[in-house]
Amino acid sequence: MKNDEQELMAGIRQKDRKSFEAVVRLYTTQLYRACLGLGFQKSEAEDVTQSTWITFFDVAPGFEGRSSIRTFLFGILYNKASEYRKQNKRAAATEDIEKVVDAHFDERGSWLPSHVPVSPERFLESTQTRVLISQCLDLLPLKQKMAFVLKEVEEETSEHICSALGITASNLGVLLFRARNQLRECIDRKSR
Predict the structure, then answer these.
(1) How far is CA 100 from CA 4, 41, 109, 128, in A?
(2) Residue 168 burial (CB < 10 Å; 0-12/13-18/19+)?
(3) Residue 29: exposed, middle, or buried by beta-carbon count in 10 A (0-12, 13-18, 19+)?
(4) How far apart are CA 51 and CA 28, in angstroms?
């Protein structure tokens, strides 16, 4: 794996198209999912992911390889997510139940294959839980949210998270501790 990554970086430094395509295939889904985990809507997640790639293409030929490509990309993603939030100052959006239900059907009203019907009670409960968690995640400061999503959703190593966010291991521990406590308190408050 290490040699494959070194070969990819060598190709990227030489602006080899196939190397860029390979990196895009490897990491686009992960970047997009991380954006969704940060609370971005689908179109916003696409914008932030695309912005991350644009920056990567600009700076990658000068990348020295002191971290992995993935860590480098998530560092760019963190910065792009911060920039996007500052520029748009979007209000914390909540996902209403109709949108969730509509996402399970095609244009003709048939269930989408990836959405197996469940009992209405179970569906409503899981939807409400997802909305509750999303609302509480949106209340976290961006750095806490990014650390939490990278650790708990993306299952990234602490070393990679520290490198991507430009923080120390002890700072990461503090961010995760605070994020978990704030999420626990928020979920407890909102679920009463």
Answers:
(1) 40, 13, 14, 10
(2) exposed
(3) exposed
(4) 12
Helix (H) or strand (E) holding 172: helix 169-190
Q: Which residues pair with 127 in a beta bridge?
A: none
Q: What is the pLDDT along the chain (192 residues), one digit of tens a residue?
A: 456 888 888 888 888 889 889 999 999 999 999 888 888 889 999 999 999 999 998 888 887 777 888 888 988 998 898 888 877 764 444 345 556 556 656 666 665 665 555 555 565 566 677 777 778 888 889 889 888 888 887 888 888 888 888 899 899 989 999 988 888 888 878 777
Q: How far apart are CA 50 and CA 114, in angstroms?
A: 26
Would you state the structure tokens that stand for residue 168, as one six-digit string? 């120390």
Burial class of 55 by CB neighbour count within 10 A (0 to 12, 13 to 18, 19+) = middle
Residue holding tokens 């704030």? 182
Token match 């860590």: residue?
71
Tokens of 178: 């605070």
SS3 state at 133: helix
Q: Which residue in 40, 47, 43, 11 sits closest to 26, CA to CA?
A: 11
